[in-house]
TrEMBL record:
It comes from the Bacteria. Pfam families: G3P_antiterm. InterPro entries: Aldolase_TIM (IPR013785), GlpP (IPR006699). It comes from Clostridium neonatale. This is Glycerol uptake operon antiterminator regulator.
């Protein structure tokens, strides 16, 4: 399935920071789970739990303890886990994920015009989608959506139904949130 279709069909993504949140996400109606925790010894079992629940797991590789920012880590994920993709702030990791046919989401932080221009001009060539943080900046979501033509995941600080609606109406394809109350919207 094309990532744009996948994200459009699943506009709420459960983002989990610990085992308790993971268990809640597995029981929720959210089809996609962003894993924001783990270490080299636990990620394979985390990915198996997600796969067994018929959900799509995408791991934020920068947050995994024990991993370096090297292509071999992507090869390990592809061969030894059930994750469907990765999130990273590192363009070289995103590029490596594409090489190994994993979904690749580039996470970007927008805090001024310079960072916005950097995203528009330099950071989007290899990724399948962008995750824009903080996700509560509708003007920026609209600009990035128009300029990049990439699916956008709006993440960070999204805590209410109104913020979800605002992000989606501003150009986001979907939102990621750790607020489990939103996962079943």
């Amino acid at each position: 399935m094309d990532i744009k279709d996948l994200l459009e069909e699943n506009p709420i993504i459960a983002a989990v920071k610990n085992e308790e949140q993971l268990n809640s996400a597995l029981e929720s109606s959210a089809k996609i789970i962003f894993v924001l925790f783990g270490d080299i010894t636990s990620i394979a079992s985390i990915s198996e739990k997600i796969e067994e629940s018929d959900k799509i797991g995408i791991i934020h590789i920068d947050l995994v303890e024990g991993f370096a920012n090297k292509e071999i880590v992507i090869k390990y994920l592809k061969e030894k886990t059930k994750f469907h993709g990765i999130i990273s702030t590192k363009p070289q990791i995103v590029k490596a994920a594409k090489k190994y046919n994993l979904l690749a989401i580039q996470r970007v932080f927008i805090f001024d015009t310079l960072s916005l221009n950097n995203v528009k001009n330099h950071m989007i060539t290899e990724c399948d989608a962008l995750e824009v943080l903080p996700g509560v900046i509708p003007k920026v979501l609209g600009i990035i959506s128009r300029e990049t033509k990439k699916p956008l995941v709006s993440g960070g600080l999204i805590e209410s139904k109104n913020e979800v609606i605002q992000a989606l109406n501003s150009g986001a394809t979907c939102v990621s949130t750790t607020k489990k109350e939103i996962w079943d919207m």
